[in-house]
Amino acid sequence: MIKTYIRLLRVPQWIKNSFVFVPLIFSLHLFQGNYLLRAIAAFIVFSLISSIVYIINDVIDIEADKAHPHKRFRPLPSGAISKNNALLVAAVLFFIVIISLPQFNIDFIIVSITYLILNIFYSFILKHIVLLDIFSIAAGFMLRIVAGALAINVELSSWLILTTMFISLFLGVMKRRSELVLIAPNDPADNPLKSEENITTRKVLAFYSVNFADQMATIAAAGVIVCYALYTVSARTISVFQTEDLIYTTPFVVFGIFRYMYLVYMNQKGENTTEIMISDIAMITTVLLYVFTTTVIIYSNL
Predict the structure, then answer these.
(1) I need a labelling partner for 31 at 20 to 30 A (CA). Which of 64, 88, 168, 204 fits?
(2) What is the pLDDT of residues 28-52, one digit of tens each?
(3) Model's pTM, two decimal places?
């Protein structure tokens, strides 16, 4: 049962909340204990909120998930956990979040509550509206990185916010593309509006096509690379870190984007972002090398 409840909470998905650590790395305070502890606390709060949202979403989509080839094995649609028990777990998590928030500043509390409200609206309404579903996902990632900055009271670069926006849009679009291919594998380029299976799993997919998703993914991927490259060479970045060497981390970003696209296009992955990030050796190596290289470059001049 413990494993079942871990699946209900989607604990592996908590890796997405690691975005709250991005401001810490670029703040020059990574190795200062009080800053690190506050960032970890922010990560825990957002992880709990994420689990609350996952539970609410699963309760709402329980019937649709029963028709999905993969989601039907989740605890709720499979019957391993009842709706009442799931909602009770969500209530307990909500109580823990409420008693934890007062330790943070008011701005962090506002962003956290906004993140929760946004995702509840997403579960009920926004995920059914074409394009707004993807932008809602992107907004969630941006709120994570903003919350990470507010938790430790540091300023966030505009270029870093833009990079986060584009990378979250990229991940959202690639997820939709993977869902389209999963539903209409024989003719993925066709708009699956007439697919009865699509209607019963995720209604908004009826308004997308793989070709449209490919174009959006290309734009978003280009946005990630351009914004990050401009961030590394901006006057503010060079002034803060006292080095121009951050540009040498750009190849890791480019390779990571291309590797992710390869896995989605060639290996038919992408519906589960977390699975890719924790199972593909090349992606794991790229992320670790990026974090290591960036940390060395930023903190070697201190």
Answers:
(1) 168
(2) 999 999 999 999 999 999 999 999 9
(3) 0.89
